[in-house]
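step=encode ok
step=design start
structure_in=
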C-alpha cells in the first residue's frame, strides 16, 4: 500500500488496523491458553484462573520479545507438525471406537447430545429464523475473506525468498489447512459421542474450549488411565504450541507495524536507527499483549473459535478491501485506502460492540450471561453476532467512494511496477 500511496496516512491506517485485529485474535488465544493451563493444573476459582491467564500471557509475550522472527518461525514449524500429527492420531482413535463407521459416530453423537436427530440437521444453532441465517452467512463470509487480511498471515510472505516460493507455500498451506478442517469434524462429533456427563460439564463451563483435550483423554482410556493421561498431555502440548505460535505471529506483526510504520516512518519520517525500531517494537509487544490479557479476563466464558471469527471479520472489513483494490484497481489512491481501512475497521468494531457478543445474550436454560458483560447489562441493538455481512461491504464501498471523490490521481506507471512486483517478486526485496 505504501509503495503506491502517500506513506504517512496509509502507514498510520494500516498500523492501527493491524493492532486492532491482532488484539481481537490475541484475546482468543489468551482465553484458550488460560482454559488449557487451568485444566492441566486443576485450577479452580475465578481469582486463580485470572492469575493463570496473566501468567501464561506474560510468558508468551516474553518469548516473542526474546525470540523475534526466527524464534517465531521455528515455533510455527514445530506447531504445524505437532498439530497435524496429533489431530490425525486422535481422529483415527475416535473412528476406531466406531469401527471406522461414520454413520455410527454421527448417530451416537446425536443421541448423546440431548437434541436427538436435530443435532445433525440445520437450524439447531443457525437457520431457525431469518436473523440466525444471516448470522451464519456473515460468519462464513468473514472466515473465507478474513484469512486474506490477517496480519500474522500476511507477514509470513516476508520470510520466503521469491514470489514463486510464496505461491508454493500458499498451496501447501491450503492443503494442510483443508485436511485439518476435515479432521476437526471428526473431533467435534467424537467429543459429542464419547465425553461423559462430568466432562460435558467441564466443556460447558469453559465455553466449549476444553472439548479437544478431554476427548483425547477419553479415547486414551478415560480419566485416571495411563493412556488417557498421555494423550491429554500430548494434545495439551499441541494446543499450547499452537497458541504460542499464533500469539508470537500476532504480537510480532503488530509490534513491528507500530515500530516500523508508526514510529519510524510517521513520527520519525524515516530518520531512525534499526536499534531504536527494535526497542520500540519490544515495548509495543508488551503493551499490546497487556491489553489482550486484560480483555481475556472478562472474556473467559466466550468460545475461542467464535472470538477468532470476530478477528477474521475485522480483518476482512479493514484490510482486505484496500489490499484487493491496490492490486487490481489502477485508479486506487490514498484517500480510498484510508477510507477503506478506517471505515471497515470502525464499522466492524462498532457493530461488535453493539452486538450480543458484548451484552444482552443470555442462556435460556440457565439464565447465565453468554456475553462479555454479565447479566443486567444490555445495550445491543445490532442483531448479528458476526458483523462481516455489513462491515465488509462498507469497507469496499468506502474504498471506492474515497477513490472516486479524491482530487489526486493514481500514477499508472507506479501501478504497473507494482503489478510486476506482485506477479514476479522482482524488485520487491
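sequence_out=
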Amino acid at each position: 500500500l505504501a509503495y503506491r500511496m502517500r506513506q504517512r496516512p496509509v502507514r498510520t491506517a494500516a498500523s492501527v488496523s493491524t493492532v486492532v485485529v491482532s488484539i481481537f485474535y490475541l484475546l482468543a488465544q489468551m482465553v484458550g491458553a488460560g482454559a488449557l493451563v487451568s485444566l492441566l493444573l486443576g485450577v479452580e476459582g475465578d481469582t486463580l484462573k485470572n492469575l493463570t491467564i496473566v501468567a501464561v500471557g506474560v510468558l508468551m509475550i516474553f518469548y516473542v520479545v526474546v525470540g523475534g522472527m526466527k524464534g517465531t518461525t521455528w515455533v510455527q514449524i514445530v506447531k504445524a507438525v505437532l498439530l497435524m500429527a496429533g489431530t490425525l492420531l486422535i481422529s483415527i482413535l475416535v473412528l476406531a471406537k466406531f469401527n471406522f463407521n461414520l454413520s455410527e459416530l454421527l448417530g451416537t453423537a446425536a443421541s448423546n447430545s440431548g437434541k436427538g436427530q436435530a443435532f445433525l440437521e440445520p437450524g439447531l444453532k443457525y437457520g431457525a429464523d431469518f436473523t440466525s441465517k444471516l448470522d451464519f452467512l456473515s460468519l462464513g463470509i468473514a472466515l473465507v475473506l478474513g484469512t486474506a487480511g490477517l496480519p500474522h498471515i500476511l507477514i509470513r510472505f516476508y520470510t520466503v525468498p521469491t514470489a514463486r516460493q510464496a505461491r508454493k507455500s500458499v498451496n501447501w498451506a491450503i492443503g494442510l489447512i483443508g485436511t485439518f478442517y476435515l479432521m476437526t469434524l471428526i473431533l467435534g462429533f467424537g467429543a459429542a459421542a464419547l465425553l461423559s456427563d462430568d466432562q460435558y460439564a467441564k466443556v460447558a463451563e469453559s465455553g466449549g474450549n476444553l472439548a479437544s483435550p478431554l476427548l483425547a483423554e477419553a479415547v486414551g482410556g478415560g480419566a485416571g488411565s495411563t493412556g488417557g493421561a498421555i494423550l491429554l498431555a500430548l494434545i495439551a502440548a499441541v494446543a499450547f504450541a499452537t497458541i504460542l505460535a499464533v500469539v508470537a505471529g500476532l504480537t510480532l506483526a503488530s509490534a513491528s507495524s507500530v515500530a516500523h510504520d508508526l514510529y519510524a516512518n510517521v513520527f520519525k519520517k524515516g530518520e531512525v536507527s534499526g536499534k531504536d525500531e527494535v526497542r520500540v517494537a519490544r515495548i509495543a509487544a508488551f503493551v499490546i499483549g497487556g491489553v489482550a490479557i486484560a480483555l481475556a479476563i472478562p472474556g473467559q466464558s466466550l468460545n475461542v473459535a467464535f472470538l477468532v471469527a470476530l478477528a477474521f471479520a475485522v480483518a476482512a472489513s479493514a484490510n482486505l478491501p484496500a489490499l484487493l483494490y491496490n492490486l487490481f484497481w489502477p485508479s486506487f489512491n490514498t484517500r480510498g485506502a484510508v477510507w477503506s481501512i478506517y471505515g471497515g475497521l470502525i464499522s466492524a468494531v462498532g457493530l461488535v460492540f453493539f452486538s450480543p457478543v458484548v451484552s444482552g445474550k443470555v442462556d435460556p436454560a440457565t439464565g447465565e450471561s453468554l456475553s462479555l458483560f454479565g447479566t443486567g447489562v444490555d445495550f445491543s441493538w445490532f442483531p448479528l453476532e458476526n458483523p462481516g455481512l455489513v462491515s465488509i461491504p462498507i469497507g469496499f464501498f468506502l474504498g471506492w467512494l474515497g477513490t472516486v471523490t479524491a482530487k489526486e490521481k493514481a500514477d499508472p506507471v507506479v501501478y504497473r511496477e507494482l503489478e510486476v512486483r506482485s506477479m514476479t517478486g522482482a524488485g520487491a526485496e
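step=design ok
step=annotate ok -> The chain is about 70% helix and 0% strand.
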